């Protein structure tokens, strides 16, 4: 049985947070909102609790977890050393959707890091998240609160769709503001390396660091990536997804052609598109409009709801309209490419 608590994101009930923080401290699993996606929290220093996260999600144990803290200086309790670049990033973007990989102290369990010498640390900006971590009094290990391989949850309802009955509690503070996971930056390399694009954009990182490496597996041109963290399916809806990548006019033509071909073979077809394109689609296609073209914040915020929206509609196939890689668009396209298993339609 999973306890459900509804709270106000800006004026949270302290009694609820105190109760759920105690559950966390005692080794139970609590799903909670952050500004990015809902996290599946556990006491990050309790090996049994951390192992329970992997169990509940069906997550491969070699995929390491992020430790969440409630104040910048807590990084020193977990990191063996904090490079100047990491400090500069923390000063500018914490609290916020940025995760930094640094060398770990011995007290960080192997279960958290997958046996690596490094640990990923994040200070979320969400008031509910920070209060919960503060009251728990321990670093909170938290992956996204979905079944492994499924789209991340941006609402408590999406958490329950995957994990109801498998976790002690879920705190519902409404939909997440950003809608895609935090940016992950490896700060142990001489030039920091972007491992996962997210709420803090590549451009924002460059502003502080001057120079940022991009992990080769992030390149859109890359076929199936081979690095360990990317060998698993991610963010996938139940039906196969195809991603159309092209300039708007070409994308419209490609998408219509694909939809008409699929419909002609008698398939039930879903499509994820911009407001601009929605009007010119064949009416038989089941459309989810992710927002106006160019409003990447809205598109990011709606992305995972869009991917989950077809789960109970019995579609045979889904097509998605890609967007530009600029700013938050890089994070959106990274998730769409993975959700599509790199089935990409180009000219
Ligand atoms: O926005 C977020 O980051 C959300 C919320 C809940 O905070 N959490 C999240 O966690 O997305 P998860 O587990 O779904 O993604 C963590 C990512 C994975 O890609 C993992 O491989 C990477 O961070 N990671 C964790 N520790 C690492 C390490 N020591 N070195 C390299 N990558 C690491
Ligand atoms: Mg995840």
TrEMBL record:
Q: Where is the YrdC-like domain?
A: 14-200
User: Which reaction is recorded as catalysed by this protein?
Assistant: L-threonine + hydrogencarbonate + ATP = L-threonylcarbamoyladenylate + diphosphate + H2O
Q: A Pfam family matched by this chain, by name?
A: Sua5_yciO_yrdC
**SUPFAM superfamilies, sorted:** YrdC/RibB (SSF55821)
GO molecular function list: L-threonylcarbamoyladenylate synthase
List where in the cell it is found: Cytoplasm
- Domain of life according to the entry: Bacteria
ATP-binding keyword on record: yes
Write the Enzyme Commission number(s) for this entry.
Answer: 2.7.7.87
Sorted UniProt keywords: ATP-binding, Cytoplasm, Nucleotide-binding, Nucleotidyltransferase, Transferase, tRNA processing
Iron-sulfur as a keyword of this entry, yes or no, is no
Looking up PANTHER family in the UniProt record yields: SUA5 (PTHR17490), THREONYLCARBAMOYL-AMP SYNTHASE (PTHR17490:SF16)
Per the similarity annotation, which family is this? Belongs to the SUA5 family.
Function per UniProt: Required for the formation of a threonylcarbamoyl group on adenosine at position 37 (t(6)A37) in tRNAs that read codons beginning with adenine.
Q: What is this protein called?
A: Threonylcarbamoyl-AMP synthase
Q: Which organism is it from?
A: Sporomusa silvacetica DSM 10669
Name of the gene: ywlC
């Amino acid at each position: 049985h999973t306890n459900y608590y509804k709270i106000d994101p800006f004026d949270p009930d302290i009694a609820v947070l105190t109760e759920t923080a105690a559950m966390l401290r005692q080794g139970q699993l609590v799903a909670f909102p952050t500004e990015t996606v809902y996290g599946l929290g556990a006491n990050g220093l309790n090996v049994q609790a951390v192992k329970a996260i992997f169990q509940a999600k069906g997550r491969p144990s070699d995929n390491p977890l992020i430790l969440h803290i409630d104040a910048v200086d807590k990084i020193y309790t977990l990191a063996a050393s904090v490079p100047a670049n990491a400090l500069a990033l923390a000063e500018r973007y914490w609290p916020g959707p940025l995760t930094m990989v640094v060398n770990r102290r011995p007290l960080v369990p192997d279960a958290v890091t997958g046996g690596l010498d490094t640990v990923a640390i994040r200070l979320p900006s969400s008031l509910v998240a920070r209060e919960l971590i503060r009251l728990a009094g321990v670093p909170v290990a938290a992956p996204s609160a979905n079944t492994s391989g499924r789209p991340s949850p941006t609402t408590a309802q999406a958490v329950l769709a995957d994990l109801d009955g498998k976790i002690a509690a879920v705190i519902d503070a409404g939909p997440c503001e950003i809608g895609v996971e935090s940016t992950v930056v490896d700060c142990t390399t001489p030039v920091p390396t972007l491992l996962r694009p997210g709420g803090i954009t590549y451009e924002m990182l460059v502003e502080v660091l001057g120079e940022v490496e991009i992990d080769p597996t992030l390149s859109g041109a890359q076929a199936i990536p081979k690095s360990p963290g990317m060998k698993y399916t991610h963010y996938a809806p139940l039906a196969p997804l195809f991603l159309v990548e092209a300039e708007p006019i070409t994308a419209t033509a490609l998408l219509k052609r694909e939809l008409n071909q699929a419909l002609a073979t008698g398939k039930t077809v879903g499509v994820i598109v911009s407001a601009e394109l929605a009007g010119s689609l064949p009416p038989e296609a089941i459309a989810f409009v992710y927002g106006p073209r160019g409003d990447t914040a809205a598109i990011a915020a709606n992305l995972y709801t869009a991917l989950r929206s077809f789960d109970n509609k019995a579609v045979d196939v889904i097509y998605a309209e890609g967007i530009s890689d600029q700013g938050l668009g890089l994070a959106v396209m990274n998730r769409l490419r993975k959700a599509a298993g790199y089935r990409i339609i180009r000219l």
